[in-house]
Amino acid sequence: MDINSIMSSKLIELQQTVQMSVLKNAMNMETVAAVELLENMPQTSAPHPYKGSVVDIQV
User: Fold this and answer.
1) Alpha carbon of 39 to those of 25, 28, 30, 31, 47: distances in Å?
2) Distance (Å, rounded) from C-alpha 2 to C-alpha 18?
3) 6-34 in b/e burial notation, b at 16+ Cβ within 10 A?
4) What is the dihedral of CA 35, 36, 38, 42, to 10 degrees?
5) Distance CA 24, CA 41 (A)
6) What backbone torsions phi and psi does residue 18 show, to the nearest 5 degrees?
7) How many angstroms separate the Cα of 38 from the Cα of each of 25, 28, 32?
8) How far is Cα 19 from Cα 17, in angstroms, rounded to an integer?
9) In this predicted structure, what is the pLDDT of residue 46?
10) What is the rounded radius of gyration, in angstroms, for the C-alpha atoms of the chain?
11) Residues of the chain with pLDDT under 50
12) pLDDT of res. 41
């Protein structure tokens, strides 16, 4: 095996490692942003869809 093929295979491995690292960091950043968004949402409860209103039931 000559030095060019060894270096080529090592370069491919390095590129894959860097791509995975970048992908992992991007996913972590998006997860942090989603958690912050959820934490900053107002904590008001939604009104009940029918509780307290008149419901007509015909038998």
Assistant:
1) 21, 16, 14, 12, 21
2) 25
3) eeeeeeeeeeeeeeeeeeeeeeeeeeeee
4) 160
5) 26
6) -65, -40
7) 20, 15, 10
8) 5
9) 75
10) 28
11) none
12) 87
24/2 Cα distance (integer angstroms): 34
17 to 11, 32, 54: CA distances (angstroms): 10, 23, 63
**Amino acid 55: pLDDT:** 64
Report d(CA 31, CA 28) in Å as an integer: 5
Cα 1 to Cα 10: distance, rounded to the nearest angstrom: 13
Q: What is the pLDDT of residue 10?
A: 95
Residues 39, 33: Cα–Cα separation, whole Å: 10
What is the model's pTM?
Answer: 0.56
